[in-house]
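Quick start: what a row looks like.
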Amino acid sequence: MRPPDFARMLRRSGGRATPGRLRLMRALWKEPAPVTAARLQKSLGRTLNLATLYRALDALAGVGVVRRVDFRHGHAHYELAAPARAHHHHLACTGCGAVEDVSCTLRPRLKRASAFSAITDHAMEYFGLCKACGARGAERVSRTRTEAME
């Protein structure tokens, strides 16, 4: 599949289409799942320092072309937002950290059933155990990890 016109997307969103931001969006396009800033830095050949990379990611998220995702790993993950990628949500395994994309059609129903005139944004991640971790009893591991963080 051919990548979208990222420069055009940025301009339409009100963002600046700098060479660095375009490289960053191309790097995100190549990733099959949300990634950390450290992984992006590595895939970009460490040409951007981490502080600059985070500023660029925040700017891209601010204009809506990148989505910041929290999988409760203690750090953010990033992915391209719609229309570059189909709109979706995530299932995240609390045992092994596996992530799976899922679609959800709740937003249109919420708009019809609520007193809001518009829903402008949302974030929805689901947490649980994948089948492999469930079979291994990873729920104990997950509880232990949660207790250690408290």
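That is the whole record. The two ends are 44 Å apart (CA to CA). The longest helix spans residues 50-62.
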